[in-house]
Amino acid sequence: MEINTSILSTAEKCIDRETSGETSMHIEELGRKASLTLLTKLRLARLACAKDLQPYITPIHYAYHDGYVYSFSTVGQKIEWMRANPQVCLEADEFKSRQSGAVL
After folding, report:
1. d(CA 59, CA 38)
2. CATH assignment of the domain containing 66
3. What are phi and psi of 60, to 5 degrees?
4. How many domains does the chain have?
5. E strands, the chain, where?
6. pTM, to two decimals
7. Paired residues of 89 in beta bridges
8. Range of the domain at 68
9. What is the pLDDT of residues 11-61, one digit of tens each?
10. Cβ-Cβ contacts under 8 Å for 64 (sequence gap 6 or more)
11. pLDDT the model gives residue 3
12. For residue range 78-91, what is the model confidence (pLDDT) as tens digits?
């Protein structure tokens, strides 16, 4: 699967529980370089695809290298659905603690 990095959007989420006892969230956009570094480092993601207006999301193990995501699978629902509709989405995240993390 080739990654269209022109639409790569990411956000870093930081939860600060020290502001007057209330939970607050700070979200900031990661740059392209930080996004690709994180995508290269992580190995577990969720693959989303759709067929006949029905969504399907499943976890996958992957590797990212030179603009491509590599994974493996036997023939089944996700392969059949991706063949029917190659427009798919990949979501990966990393949480450093309960207070901070990143989502691609």
Report:
1. 17
2. 2.30.110.10
3. -140, 155
4. 1
5. 11-19, 22-28, 44-51, 54-61, 63-65, 68-70, 89-91, 93-95, 100-103
6. 0.72
7. 48
8. 5-103
9. 444 444 555 566 667 777 888 888 899 899 999 999 999 999 999 999 999
10. 3, 36, 39, 40, 70
11. 57
12. 999 999 999 999 99
